[in-house]
What does this fold into?
Amino acid sequence: MITKEQVWKGLRLELSYEELGKIDQCGNYERDDYYDFDLLMSTLYKMLNREIDFKHFLSWCILIANCFSYIKFSNSKLNHLYCDIGWFFDGISFMDEYNKLRLLESIAMLKHYDYLVNKAKKKTKKPFTTNGVERILCFDHANWNYDSSVYKVIIKDYNTQEWEIRYFDDYNFEYDENINYSFVDDTEFANIFSEFYNEKTKWKEIHNMNF
It folds into this structure.
């Protein structure tokens, strides 16, 4: 079994690439609350700024994917979220090379995961907005021509009660680090969309909103 002290050393990048690789291969970790948003975010930024070795970063992502299976709480929603975050970092570990777009997307996604964690802990009930505007993304399809992802998007302005739906292709898009983005599945996206057509709604559909 890998002790929690060793896991934390790996998470803090205090282990060499070789040492990290050894504990990555272990299938048994001591249980602990390994979720530390600031630590995860700071390491993503270190990779974004090329301050750490790329292979070391990928090994770090694998450690997260592994050890997050050993976070257990009585709150089933939190358990599900930590499992999702582990799979999220597992996906990042398959990057072939440094990719600024994908790292910025990962930073945006991790911010949304942290919002969901805080919501599950009942620390917030507010929507995930920036200056009163919520940007809700749902993956629609891959554009193989550009090796990019196409999203359907709802922009929801709580200040004016206006909304818009559109599609965007991320091949020429760079996530703004100062803006919050929500990432949802098809079912949640459809539910949000249907709310605008409630007979009591005051929401107005417009066009050309700022994304």
